[in-house]
């Protein structure tokens, strides 16, 4: 018995490179559609960035009304709020770094407010030591920087160090997709923000 299996000849033949490219050119797949889709995506991104700039994203704004601060934290996806006092030198150091980050990361809103203009929030958020910078995502506090202890307890920390902190917290975009640190998220009116220990200015 012959165990040979006959394979039906489909009458076809191998295509050389030229014939293969010709087949691809005749295919229904249209690269133009992909190009147009990408252009539309870029247009949407430009429009979104323009809207952000119009709403003070990309700048470091000094807010005088604490109600506006509350609106920002609840209506903005990502924001960083600096509670400061004009007499505290380290607050001015923080300003320099946050202003640089605001220009670089326009999708995150950076603002500051004098503690004397925010008595309600100062009490609710337990702002006792300055500088105090609280970052929010969707109205939830995800990071709290009190003084410079976590920045090496030095006035000469780099903007990059602060930038990495906020990337890790997920407050600004991190292209490297690093894992977010594990931390408890608390609402803007939450309690127990942790220890206020530090060597910076008591308010």
TrEMBL record:
Instruction: Tell me the domain of life.
Output: Eukaryota
Record domain Thioredoxin: where: 71-150
> Per the UniProt record, which residue ranges are transmembrane?
none
Q: Which InterPro entries match?
A: Thioredoxin-like_sf, Thioredoxin_domain
Output this protein's name: Thioredoxin domain-containing protein
Organism taxonomic ancestry = Eukaryota, Fungi, Fungi incertae sedis, Mucoromycota, Mortierellomycotina
